[in-house]
Design brief:
The chain is of the alpha/beta class and about 220 residues long. Helix 1 packs across helix 3, helix 1 packs parallel to helix 4 and helix 3 packs antiparallel against helix 6. The radius of gyration is 17 Å and the shape is globular.
Amino acid sequence: MKELKDFFKKCFSSNLINSLKLPNDDKQIEVLADKFLFYLSELKKWNKAYNLTSIEDEKEIIVKHFIDSLLYLCFISENPLSIADIGTGAGFPGIPIAIVRPRAKITLIEPSWKKNAFLKNIKRKLELENIEIIRAKAEEIHNKFDIVISRALWSIKDFIKHCNHLLKKEGYFLISKSLKIDEEIQNLTERYNIEIREFELPDINSSQIGGKRYIIKIEKCES
């Protein structure tokens, strides 16, 4: 466990994470490490029966689930915003964001009852009061949010199509992609303001577990 904690701290203290302006005090990082490693242990335990992730390596989970989820913060201020995480699965990216941004109101939307059970377990055990969990598909939700996020669940075009009704007038979408960004943007039939940030995930022992990630912010153009 000490090796994993040291690895998490190393990732969390990297230039990548520093660029997101997250807590960098040693005591705060220690608290966050304990929360994320508890999340990791619960994920592995529940995964045996609930099939929550195909990733089994613990360090790979830290990089590809936890660190990857925090990249969304490049477009999320510290203001108390309402955020909908569509098709959150085992809580990515919503729970990592909720852990480091307690003022944000995160709504996790997931149709699977098994994954909902896991999400409720994590919310209770980590005492994440800023999380609401809804078992539903995006099309069944009628709430309005400041930000609507998804983790490569759909193409950009389909993401907007399925989730457009969830966005407040001044809100925006955030989606993570690793490939075919230009092609997907060209397929959009309406005009949007689009901003893209590029990141390189940490490598793990030169095993090429890292890789490029693009966080895409999409706003409706004013008519």
